Amino acid sequence: MNFRTQQAANKRKTIGLLMGMGVLVWLVVFAAMTYFGNSTAGIVPIAVGIALISVWGSYYGADKLVLTMTGAKLIQESDNPKLFNLVHEVTIASGLPMPKVAIVVDSAPNAFATGRNPEHALIAFTTGILETMDRDQLQGVIAHEMAHIENRDTLVSAVAATTAGAIAILSDMLTRMMWFGGGRDRDRNGGNPIALVFSLLILILAPLAAMLLRSAISRKRESLADATAVAFTRNPAGLRSALEVLAADSTVVHQKSTSVAHIWIESPLDGKSVSKLFSTHPPIAERIAVLKAMESLN
Fold first, then answer.
1. Is 57's pLDDT higher than 70?
2. Which of 109, 144, 193, 196 is the most buried (most CB within 10 A)?
3. Which residues contact 248 (CB under 8 A, 6 or more apart)?
4. Hey, what long-range contacts does 249-255 have (CB within 8 A, 24 or more apart)?
5. For residue range 281-291, what is the model confidence (pLDDT) as tens digits?
6. TM segments (predicted)?
């Protein structure tokens, strides 16, 4: 499978997963109205509003917020001319504006990209990755991060986070209503007991389903970024070799909270103890295998 086929497949899957989140929102609203009646309709915009404020505020200031959370420091070209040279090369190949560049003082090899659009993009590298990787490997990493910018992955993540957040808030509010009087209205109004039990199950399980869908979207965006990186460099071996270095290294970045784990090229939380269903990244061995398949086509 070549990189164009990979790109198209991952874009289709992302759209399908986002549509799945939309269906999940509809199911939660339907379950709420079935269980509590039409009086709950006004809660929906409240839940969506809370999610929008919390997530999109972070989205708008993503570059500044992530700098603070990871401890990354912006650098100038004079601080590391070789690194800037590589970033310039990939920038020209991608047709994107030159991003800001930052360094995280951390011995674990890793990197990330963020920013609400290409004009406000930022790429950061740990000191460990700069010391560990050669030129071709580092070029592959830069291309992967530039691919996240090209594919508007900060925006996609914000949409997924908003939807998942709205579902979680809505389910929480409705569950509280259930315990504090919602059941009395239901008993007065009557209703199909099977439909009521089904609705209750939806309200309880919807936040978990939303989390699974959000993780699946993140995994597809990582796979898409790998394929897009190859489109930029036409050199799958560089990124494949970089991922092999990351796979062989056991160190983990210090800043590994769930808030920023998904932005790193290798998630610090996706260890063997984490279920694949909840992982924000595909297994690194799978990513390497896909890139090797692309190499064989060349």
1. no
2. 144
3. none
4. 249/108, 249/109, 249/132, 251/107, 251/108, 251/109, 251/128, 252/108, 253/70, 253/104, 253/106, 253/108, 253/110, 253/126, 254/71, 254/106, 254/108, 255/69, 255/70, 255/71, 255/104, 255/106
5. 999 999 999 99
6. 15-36, 42-62, 155-174, 194-213
Q: Collect all residues with Cβ–Cβ distance below 8 Å to 203 and sequence separation of at least 6.
A: 28, 31, 32, 35, 171, 174, 175, 178
Residue in 89, 119, 145, 244 annotated catalytic: 145
8 Å CB contact between 124 and 104: yes
Cα 50 from Cα 171, distance rounded (Å)? 13
Q: What secondary structure letter does DSSP report for 281?
A: S
Q: How far apart are CA 44 and CA 28, in angstroms?
A: 10
- Kindly state the DSSP code that residue 155 receives in the 8-state scheme: H
pLDDT of 235 above 70: yes
Average pLDDT over residues 171-183: 68
Full-model pTM: 0.81
Distance CA 298, CA 295 (A): 5
Q: Minimal CA–CA distance to 161: which of 37, 62, 229?
A: 62
User: What are the tens digits of pLDDT across the range 78-131?
Assistant: 999 999 999 999 999 999 999 999 999 999 999 999 888 889 889 999 999 999
Our separate counts of H helices and E strands in the chain read 11, 4
Domain boundaries, the chain: 3-297
Question: For the chain, how big is the Rg over CA atoms in Å?
Answer: 22
Average pLDDT over residues 154-171: 78
Q: Is 289 helix (H, G, I), strand (E, B) or coil?
A: helix
Q: What is the C-alpha to C-alpha distance for residues 271 and 278, in angstroms, rounded to an integer?
A: 11
Distance CA 194, CA 54 (A): 36
Task: Say how many C-beta atoms besides its own lie within 10 A of residue 116's C-beta.
Answer: 18
- Average pLDDT of the residues in 151-156: 84
Instruction: List phi, psi (to 5°) of 271.
Output: -85, -175
